[in-house]
Write a structure and sequence with these properties.
Layout (H helix, E strand, L loop, with lengths): L3 H33 L12 H13 L5 H26 L1 H5 L4 H17 L1 H6 L4 H13 L4 H28 L4 H38 L16
Helix pairs in contact: 1-2, 1-3, 1-9, 2-3, 2-8, 2-9, 3-7, 3-8, 5-7, 8-9
């Protein structure tokens, strides 16, 4: 697991090496790409909860990072990412989802479809806090021809609750006396877990895709023929 001091050093180094403007743009780009281009499927640790929480930690300890600018930009990036996913699903249809990853990913898509059918408007909000659903629900809503303005409203609520809410959680957790160390431990757990599960899924999908390709390349064997029966009289 990533130690508190290691996480603190990495976050500080990132800001020191990029500067505040590039830091903002990098965080916002990763949040946007997490859903807009499916980046969050295999590397949720740099597009999801841990990124938002960690950026809030940085803002609390860095004088040149404005938490207001950071959280507004993060909320907007989250909103626009889901809007792009929704429009892609509406334009390209179910086939767009079928081409995403291996069997594990396709199984997750089926589960997310059930989740969307069950919760409707609320699925877009709730999915923000679920790594797999966060990536696929916007596209599935587009495929399912969800009313555009209903999606717009649910997307806005979800972006505020998740994008703004988690960023502020990291900021205040690091700012409150006595809980700063615990905040870094929490962020480290988020990041370590995301790396583990994201990496495991990526490797499993690659292995399944290879097996599928090997199966398609095998030559067809001879057709089975029934045993000869007794000659007709």
């Amino acid at each position: 697991m990533m130690s508190t001091s290691a996480l603190d050093g990495q976050l500080t180094d990132l800001l020191a090496n990029t500067g505040a403007i590039v830091f903002y743009l990098l965080v916002w780009a990763l949040v946007f790409a997490g859903t807009a281009v499916f980046l969050g499927v295999f590397i949720p640790f740099i597009t999801g909860d841990s990124l938002l929480f960690g950026s809030g930690l940085v803002a609390a300890s860095a004088a040149n990072v404005d938490i207001v600018v950071l959280m507004i930009g993060t909320g907007l990036a989250a909103f626009l990412g889901d809007q792009v996913g929704f429009l892609l699903g509406r334009h390209f249809g179910r086939g767009y989802l079928d081409r995403r990853g291996g069997r594990r990913t396709r199984a997750a898509i089926v589960k997310t479809e059930t989740f969307y059918r069950k919760y409707g408007w609320w699925s877009v909000v709730i999915a923000r806090f679920m790594p797999w659903a966060r990536v696929f629900v916007p596209v599935i809503a587009g495929v399912g021809r969800m009313n555009y303005y209903r999606f717009l409203s649910s997307n806005l609520v979800g972006a505020l609750a998740w994008g703004v809410g988690l960023t502020l959680t990291g900021y205040f957790a690091a700012s409150l006396p006595g809980v700063k160390s615990a905040a870094y431990v929490i962020a480290g757990v988020f990041i370590a877990a995301s790396i583990f599960f994201g990496g495991r899924t990526w490797l499993a999908d690659r292995a399944e895709n290879r097996r599928d390709a090997d199966g398609d390349d095998r030559p067809d064997g001879p057709a089975d023929t029934p045993a000869d029966g007794p000659a007709a009289g």
